[in-house]
Specification:
The complex is a heterotrimer of chains A (220), B (220) and C (257). Chain A is an all-alpha fold. Chain A has one domain: MetI-like fold. Chain A is built from nine helices and no strands. In chain A, helix 2 packs antiparallel against helix 3, helix 2 packs antiparallel against helix 7 and helix 3 packs across helix 5. Chain A is flat. Chain B is mainly alpha-helical. Chain B has one domain: MetI-like fold. Helix content of chain B is 78%, strand content 0%. In chain B, helix 4 crosses helix 5, helix 5 crosses helix 7 and helix 6 packs antiparallel against helix 7. In chain B, 43% of the residues are buried. Chain C has 257 residues and is α/β, with parallel strands linked by helices. Chain C is 35% helix and 26% strand. Chain C is built from nine helices and twelve strands. In chain C, the strands form three sheets. In chain C, strands 8-9-10-3-11-12 form a six-stranded mixed β-sheet, sandwiched between helices. In chain C, strands 2-1-4-5 form a four-stranded antiparallel β-sheet, covered by helices on one side. In chain C, strands 6-7 form a two-stranded antiparallel sheet. In chain C, strand 1 and strand 2 form a beta hairpin. In chain C, helix 3 packs across helix 4 and helix 4 packs across helix 5. The chains are: A mainly alpha (220), B mainly alpha (220), C alpha/beta (257). At the A-B interface, helix 3, helix 4, helix 7, helix 8 and helix 9 of A face helix 3, helix 4, helix 8 and helix 9 of B.
């Protein structure tokens, strides 16, 4: 390992690396946002939907969760062109990650809502709240407490999954690192460097998650 | 739309897909076998009294859980040779799977260990058994029953992660699928079939695990 | 070897900064049945757990049949014995726990056989014969193949007692063995213990069951704040307590005969 050569090359490529990091953040952020919105919908459908809707949501969730993320990425990349939706790699990748995220969030939301004892809904009915009010004031706050840590975990998974987009040519961090390696031949240094960067991002998310968990805990 | 479904091309190469699937299962199995050994050792280390065991174990778990598996795969195959450890594609991939799953399994085993009542160890001591005998005859059998569900879902996860072997051109299911996709241009059919193969295998594995749980259950 | 089966001399035990046993002395001959009573935190369970080294102790000595338990005293220094030695010494005593602690994944007879096969190294056939005899003795011969989850609390505790006694200990230790049982299941366990006492088993029983202590013991020890407050004949102690603490303690229990 030659530290001097590594630092020189890394510094020389700092723009590319920063752009890559930016793309990683962008991909992850968009996928997390859209995936969460979609996922909440799926979760609500799983919990409260009429039977055909529940089956649809269940089929969707089981199918997506039984498929590896990379297969989703490839499918999104290759298939959409044939149905007229010619998406460049970035959009195709984000779509795949969004769908992946939504299946996880859907399960998390369903689990959290179903974990609330039915007595809560009964008590709310007894004091005359409508379903919308019950959901807003009684169910959602309690569900959120369980959802938040799992959701933060999913967000970290999305950041890790963003690396798969390098395989279809999206210019996120891992691809940029690989380009650097093919120029400099410093595999060990730069793959290690990539590991450190991703670790830093994910570790920060993990700490944030624990902070959120502490802050949202009920006083005992 | 102008795209007519034609599964014949995919059907012709179906045996290649099945071979890829078999390889995927094989890789996952080898990975989790070694991963279990690592996970057990790390689990016992995490609960050890001496910081000499606890700290490295904690560090290992934290690092692996926060690093994208693709980075680990590429590091193992491309960077390790620079350190003198040049492994074949398959060996480096299995090693990566083992180290990756070991970190998650450590938590699974640690939780399973904690769920074994502490009084059982004392009862074993009281009848004159040594710590090793207690561990083998009492603690481990009970821990196994505790961890079976989580162990099963970790294995299913690992099976899906074998799709990343495609990134270093190991001929497992996803790699074969991509090859067929590129050669025949039958994008929709290829990926539908591949997805179905993954989903079906995951469902079969889940059913297998549920069966194992029932067989090992203690009569009550 | 010695006149006494159990000799406890000046036993001191602390949990961190808190001293729980402050110099306990006890002499016990073979065949005696001693009940240990006292309020929670008085140290009775801790003393029991020191005898089979489930807890280590900081000062003092415990001897069973003249053999030093747990520590070797060389002049001024004391050294903890090897784990294999301590394991062998634990087999000199048998212990029954408040929470039974049966191995849930093994049938009743397998529970009893485990120590015989692994620690005493009997063959499976020999172990099975011993185990069946003791399960019969506690009245559960027909439940030998049942798992703990299929047994009531009282049955589980009887299996636990059989498991301990099958190891042929010189001294049986009972740690509040009926405290976790539903009231209607308590008597079947007490009956078993009474039977063992009648057969001459040496026993140290930590219990809250005052009537039982009165009926079955040859001697009663009252522990108070880490020391022995009073000891003596059950009839003497219950009817004519000499110390105020014992009098107060007896007043608060429903059995005041």
């Amino acid at each position: 390992m030659e530290f001097a050569a590594f630092f020189d090359q890394a510094w020389a490529a700092r723009v590319a690396i920063s752009k890559g990091l930016g793309t990683t953040v962008a991909v992850s952020a968009v996928a997390i946002c859209l995936g969460t919105i979609l996922g909440v919908g799926v979760g609500l459908a799983l919990t409260y939907g009429v039977r055909p809707l529940r089956w649809l949501a269940r089929g969707y969730t089981d199918f997506i969760r039984g498929t590896p993320v990379l297969v989703l990425v490839f499918a999104s990349y290759y298939v959409l062109g044939t149905v007229g939706l010619d998406l460049p790699p970035f959009e195709a990748g984000v779509l795949a990650l969004t769908v992946f995220c939504s299946s996880h969030v859907g399960e998390i939301v369903r689990g959290a809502l179903q974990a609330i004892p039915t007595g809560q809904t009964e008590a709310a009915k007894a004091i005359g709240l409508t379903f919308a009010q019950t959901f807003a004031y009684v169910l959602a706050p309690q569900a959120l407490r369980q959802i938040l840590p799992a959701w933060v975990n999913t967000a970290a998974e999305m950041v890790k999954a963003s690396t798969l987009l390098s395989i279809i040519g999206v210019g996120e961090l891992l691809l940029r690192i690989q380009e650097l390696i093919s120029r400099t031949f410093l595999s060990l240094d730069f793959y290690f460097f990539a590991g450190v960067l991703y670790f830093a991002v994910n570790y920060a998310i993990e700490r944030f998650g624990r902070y959120v968990e502490r802050r949202s805990a009920l006083p005992t | 739309m102008g795209y007519t479904l034609n599964f014949a091309a995919v059907w012709r190469s179906f045996d290649l897909l099945l071979e890829g699937l078999a390889l995927s299962l094989g890789l996952a199995f080898a990975g989790i076998l070694i991963g279990c050994v690592i996970g057990l050792i790390v689990a016992f280390s995490l609960t050890a009294k001496a910081p000499l065991w606890r700290r490295p174990a904690r560090l290992y778990v934290t690092i692996i859980r926060n690093t994208p598996i693709l980075v680990l795969i590429l590091f193992a195959y491309f960077a390790l040779p620079e350190l003198g450890l040049a492994l074949s594609k398959t060996n480096s991939f299995v090693l990566t799977l083992a180290i990756y799953s070991g970190a998650y399994l450590a938590e699974v085993f640690r939780a399973g260990l904690a769920a074994v009542p502490i009084g059982l160890r004392e009862a074993g001591l009281a009848i004159g058994l040594r710590e090793g005998q207690i561990r083998n005859s009492v603690i481990l059998p009970l821990m196994l029953r505790n961890v079976l569900p989580s162990l099963g879902s970790t294995f299913i996860s690992l099976f899906k992660d074998t799709s990343l072997a495609a990134a270093i051109a190991i001929p497992e299911l996803t790699f074969e699928a991509r090859k067929i996709n590129v050669e025949t241009f039958r994008v929709v059919e290829t990926w539908i079939v591949t997805c179905l193969l993954y989903v079906a295998t995951c469902a079969a594995l889940a059913a297998l695990i549920r069966y194992a749980e029932r067989r090992l259950a203690i009569p009550r | 070897m010695s006149d006494y089966l159990l000799e406890i001399c000046n036993l001191h035990k602390s949990f961190g900064a808190v001293e729980v046993l402050k110099g306990v002395d006890c002499l016990m001959r073979a065949g005696e049945v001693i009940s240990v009573i006292g309020s929670s935190g008085s140290g009775k369970t801790t003393m029991l757990r020191c005898i089979n080294m489930l807890e280590d102790f900081q000062d003092g000595s415990i001897r069973i049949d003249g053999e030093d338990i747990g520590y070797e005293v060389l002049g001024d220094a004391r050294r903890r014995k090897k784990e294999s030695e301590i394991a062998r010494q634990r087999a000199l005593t048998g212990m029954a726990f408040q929470q039974f602690n049966l191995f849930p994944h093994m049938s009743a007879i397998d529970n009893v056989m485990l120590g015989l096969v692994k620690a005493k190294r009997l063959t499976r056939e020999a172990a099975r014969a011993v185990a069946e005899r003791w399960l019969d003795r506690v009245g559960l011969r027909d439940r030998a193949g049942h798992y703990p989850g299929q047994l009531s609390g009282g049955q589980q505790q009887r299996v636990a007692i059989a498991r301990a006694i099958a190891m042929n200990p010189k001294l049986m230790l009972f740690d509040e063995v009926t405290s976790a049982l539903d009231p209607e299941l308590v008597s079947e366990v007490l009956q078993v213990i009474k039977g063992l006492a009648a057969d001459g088993m040496s026993m140290l029983i930590v219990t809250h069951e005052m009537r039982f202590a009165y009926e079955v013991s040859t001697r009663v020890i009252f522990m108070n704040q880490g020391r022995i407050g009073e000891e003596g004949d059950p009839r003497e102690m219950f009817n004519r307590p000499r110390t105020e603490r014992l009098a107060e303690f007896l007043k608060s229990s429903p059995f005041t005969k």
